[in-house]
Amino acid sequence: MKVTVVGAGAVGASCAEYIAIKNFASEVVLVDIKENFAEGKAMDLMQTASLNGFDTKITGSTNDYSKTAGSDIAVITSGIPRKPGMTREELIGINAGIVKEVSSNLIKHSPEVTIIVVSNPMDTMTYLVHKTTGLPKNKIIGMGGALDSARFKYRLSEALGAPASDVDGMVIGGHSDTGMVPLTRLATRNSVPVSEFISEERLSQVAEDTKVGGATLTKMLGTSAWYAPGAAVSGLVQAIACDQKKIFPCSTLLDGEYGLSDLCIGVPVVLGKDGIEKIVEIDLSDAEKAKLQESAEGVKKTNGLLEL
Ligand code: PYR
Fold it and tell me: Which BP terms from GO are recorded (predicted)?
């Protein structure tokens, strides 16, 4: 199992680190445009191998995609991250060109690759990869919902005074401050609906805090977050690499599912060796359907800014 991670910044490097620590991939190639940067990150990470007990070989490359040849999975984290006060949508001008070039370079050397898109605005960048690469739709996956759901579970665990491992919940919709749809109705603490423990008002606050989870951290850190994004990507990579058939909310091209088409947006999918093996259509309430519809309109508006 060979995995390429393009962009050796904080998100890419933490993604490589989590993949290595989970010890399921034989090789991770980090790629960056900055001279020696990916090589340096790879060397630093390899010096943790004996400490963290992994066998994954991590190498770095300064924009030489021949080193990525034969990758099974590639993660695109390249592009600029947002600064405090910026929306993810504002990054489109610079990141669209980068994502287009990176995906074309990846496919040139690994025609069978499955691509996971992390660069923002993520749903639109995932759509761009569909429009420009010709890869089958099961092989193009946008990472947003897994991260947003982890942030939802964190906020739920805070509100419930329970460990996050005791909590389950999912966020669908676009990966944006206004587009996320935390499914509070379906959230549980060890199979018990969370509404048994906290008020509707508290649950609404949890949902609002979840939606601005990335923006809150960007304000605190001066740039966007990396640990939870890296861990979320590593979970998707592992599900595909190990054919786990796990359900994650991911951005995928919809063709009538949830009454939506011609856009990529976060919905539950089954991830296995073939990438997105199934889109899971859950029975949403009318209010949830309306929120997803509104979110889709926002994503389509951003897609409209692409020069295709
Ligand atoms: C986030 O932290 O939400 C990103 O989009 C990277």
Answer: lactate metabolic process; tricarboxylic acid cycle
State the pTM of this model: 0.97
**Strand stretches in 70-112, DSSP E:** 73-76
Residue intervals in the chain for CATH 3.40.50.720: 2-143
Pick the CATH number of 2-143 from 3.40.190.290, 3.40.50.1260, 3.40.50.720, 3.40.1190.10: 3.40.50.720
pLDDT of residue 2: 98
Residues annotated as part of the active site? 175
Gap from CA of 155 to ligand 1 centroid (Å): 16
Query: Is residue 229 lining ligand 1, measured as CB closer than 6 Å?
Result: yes
CATH number of 145-304: 3.90.110.10
| CA 236 to ligand 1 centroid distance, Å | 15
Mark the ranges of the chain whose per-residue pLDDT is less than 70: none
Residues forming CATH 3.90.110.10 domain(s) in the chain: 145-304
Residue 36 annotated as binding?
Answer: no
Cβ(251) to ligand 1 under 6 A?
Answer: no
214 ligand 1 Cβ < 6 A: yes
Could you report the predicted ipTM of this complex, rounded to two decimals?
0.93
Ligand-binding site membership of 95 (annotated): yes
Contacts 24+ apart (CB under 8 A), 192-196: 194/156, 194/159, 194/160, 194/167, 194/169
What is the Å distance from ligand 1's center to 20 Cα? 21
Place of tokens 């993604």: 15
